Every structure is written in structure tokens, then in C-alpha cells.
Structure prediction request, 274 residues.
Amino acid sequence: MSNPRIAFIGAGNMAASLIGGLRAQGVAADAIRASDPGIEQRAKISAEHGIRTFADNGEAIAGADVVVLAVKPQVMQAVCQDLRQHLDHAPLVVSIAAGITCDSLQRWLGPQPQAIVRCMPNTPALLRQGVSGLFANAQVSAEQKLQAETLLSAVGMALWLDEEHLIDAVTAVSGSGPAYFFLLIEAMTAAGERLGLPRETAAQLTLQTALGAARMACESDVDAAELRRRVTSPNGTTEAAIKAFQAGGFEQLVQQALNAAAYRSAELAEQLGK
Prediction:
């Protein structure tokens, strides 16, 4: 089990990213399989990573120690119900589909208790710069937790949660989070252009500033609040901008936005799990 056999159900972008990360870490191609209904997608992922691919999900998971469910939430129930007859060897099931609870997965996979890890990765995983929240049900062993953590760590950081409902908070903070930063980048670029900068210059200034600030925050030994204070001189330009943000209720607006995302995550889980 130190070198688990891993089968991916679905070979889309996130699955391809995970497979690429595993291969980059030295996982052998013959330890990884994938299934997908698309002929072109199967051919592409096989050519890129040297793994075997299948049209049939049951063939793909035969003998697998870890089964990664990487299909759209809307088809998860049908996929799980099709897989239930192929799970006698009791593999670890890892779901990266948004909004599908462990209870729903267990119900669809059949009456036999199943070791399930539910994950919420985010799109920077496509660049192996992602972060994922993970929750394991009671059937998951310590070794299986390590397998799941190793899998998700192939595309970034993996953080464990003690309670499944916190997946909704993870969705609000990091799952949807890249879009918040993209929105800020859009707004700053547009504002710079309105201040007279050429659009390309405004975009480059904004992007490099975002990248530099993120690296400073990640690599610093102090928190973001302290970093902000260090660059905010009294009565200076940064202070003027920060005061304008705060006068507009910036912190409260961020809280409202994340509350809305978390609420919608829980709502989708209820709808999709029926």
C-alpha cells in the first residue's frame, strides 16, 4: 500500500492536473489508470502521461487501492450507482466533486461501508499551486488519509478538516476564492486605465503587484495585517486608499460575499444529494 494503485473516474482538467502532479513526483505510469467517455480525452491523457485509459469505469477501478471521483456533480449519482458492483475490494474513494456529501456518496455506492474522503480543491491546482480542504469519514484509516493527502498534495497544499460542514467554508474561502482576486485585478486594471495609464501597462502593474504581494504574504514571518501596516505610512497614499476601502464597508462586504458562497455551497449539497 506504500505505492497505491490509483484509478480516476473522469479525465478532465482537474484529474489531468492530479495525474500530472503524481507523475512529476515519481509515481509510475502503470500505477495510474483513468476512465472517461470521451475518446479524444482518453487519447490525450494517455499520450501526455503514459497511463492506461478505459471507456468502462468498472475496468478502470479493478484492483485499485484509491478511486478518485472526478466527474461533474450532476452525474455523480449515476456514476456511483454504476460503480457499486465493482467495489468488493473496498478501495478508498476520494471525491473532488463540489457539493456532494459523504453520506450521499455512501448511499449511492451501496450498503457496504465505504472509506470516503471528500475534497474541495481550487483551480490553481491546474498550475500545482492549489489548496484543498479534505474531510475523511469514519471508515478511512490513517494510511488511507495519508494516501489522500499525498494525492492532493501533488497539486498544492492539503489541509484536513475535523467536520464535514466546514467544506462549505473552504468552498467560500479557497474554492471560489480565485475569482475574488480576479475581480480585484479587473477593478484595479480598469481604475489604472481611468487614471490615464495604457491598459496593458495598468494590467501588468496590477498582475505583478498581486504576484509580489502574494509571495510576500506566503514567505513572511508576520501576518497580512502586519504587512499592511508596514506599507501604510501615516497620512500617505496607501492610507488614503485603505481609508476609502474601509469607508465603503470593505471588510463587511467580504464577509457578506463569503457568507453567500458558503450558504450556496450548503444549498447545492442538499439539492444534489437527493
In short: The first strand starts at residue 6 and ends at 9. The chain has two domains: 6-170, 175-268. The chain has twelve helices and eight strands.
